[in-house]
Structures are given as structure tokens and as C-alpha cells.
Amino acid sequence: MKKVLIITISTLIFFGLNSFTTSNNPFKDLMGIWHLAVYEHGLAAEYIRGTALEQYDDFAWGGGLKFMENGEIIVRQNAGLCGTPPISYANFAGTWESLSDSTLRINYPSNVLGRRVVEWQIVELSSDKLKVKVLLDRMIRSSGTTKFKM
User: Fold this and answer.
1) Where is pLDDT greater, at 97 or 24?
2) Is 21 helix (H, G, I), strand (E, B) or coil?
3) CA 129, CA 8: separation in Å to the nearest integer?
4) What b-and-e string marks burial along 15-26, b requiring 16 or more CB atoms within 10 Å of the CB?
5) How much is the mean pLDDT over the chain?
6) What are the C-alpha distances in Å from 99 to residues 42, 51, 118, 120, 130?
7) Tell me, which fold does domain 27-147 have in CATH?
8) Distances (CA, A) of 55 to 13, 58, 96
9) Which of 133, 134, 130 is closest to 50 using CA atoms?
């Protein structure tokens, strides 16, 4: 009887700790590569799951993100100042952090302008779709900060 009790308690502890470490991350579905599908300037964006940041390298599909579990992010965006085609894209390494269960902050160098700080509220997150509302979009330049109108 004592062996059965020890085995039962050990099993409960093992599965309890295992579920605690995997289910406590509200952003677990966020990890991976996302391609920009819809962008509402300064208001919202919608992304679809992708396989490589360079998979779509044209005007319509060039933007993308790669979220990593260690708090790092790669942002694929316009490498220059002009948005007129043909657009050249580049990957910019930055960081991301959760501010709550539904909001996050992304900080990365943004082409030649400086650093960009973006805060998002996640509206929808599934295995193949990410929809966000833009709460903050700030460009930090060497001469000061510019806050984009929301």
C-alpha cells in the first residue's frame, strides 16, 4: 500500500509540474515565424504563420516577425527610408517582453532611423493567425523621441 501511495504522489507531482511549466506561457503559440497579411496604419495588424522570413520578399508580403522563447525577436521590414517599390527588406534583431497576458512590447533597430518601440494588445492568437491592436508605436532617434499618431 505504501508503494502505491508513493507512486501515485510521484505521478501527480510529475504531471503537475510538467503542466505548470508548459501551460503558464500565454504566448506559447506566438513562438515562430509570422508574415504580415493586413496592416491598418498605426491601428492594427494581422499576421499569418510562415516558414521562413525570406519566404515572401516582395511589396505585399515582405514584412514579418520571428518570435523566440528567449525574449529575442527578428523583425523583417523595409531596409530603407522610402516605401516606393521596389522595396528592399532586411532582418533586424531585437527583443520582446510580455507586459500582461494579452500585451507585449517589442524593441528593435528600425532601418536607418533609430530604435523602434511597439506595444501590442493581442486580439487573436491561434496556431496560424495573429491579430494585434497597436497601443504604442514610438521611434527613438539620437536626437529625441517621435511618437506616431494612433
Assistant:
1) 97
2) helix
3) 40
4) eeeeeeeeeeee
5) 78
6) 19, 27, 12, 9, 17
7) Lipocalin (2.40.128)
8) 43, 9, 23
9) 130
pLDDT band at 9 (very low <50, low <70, confident <90, very high): low
Chain-centroid distance of CA 68 in Å reads 8
Percent of the chain scored above 90 by pLDDT? Answer: 39
Task: Report residue 16 as a C-alpha cell.
Answer: 503537475
Inter-residue contact 71 to 38 (CB < 8 Å): no
Output phi, psi for 36, to 5 deg.
-65, 125
Residue with cell 517582453: 97
Question: Which burial class, exposed, middle or buried, applies to 139 when counting CB atoms under 10 A from its CB (0-12, 13-18, 19+)?
Answer: middle
Residue 144 confidence class, pLDDT cut points 50, 70, 90: low
Could you say which DSSP state residue 87 is in? P
Of 110, 72, 114, the C-alpha closest to 92 is 110
Cross-strand bridge partners of residue 72: 95
| Closest to 115 in 3D by CA, of 130, 95, 87 | 95
Q: Where are the domains of the chain?
A: 27-147
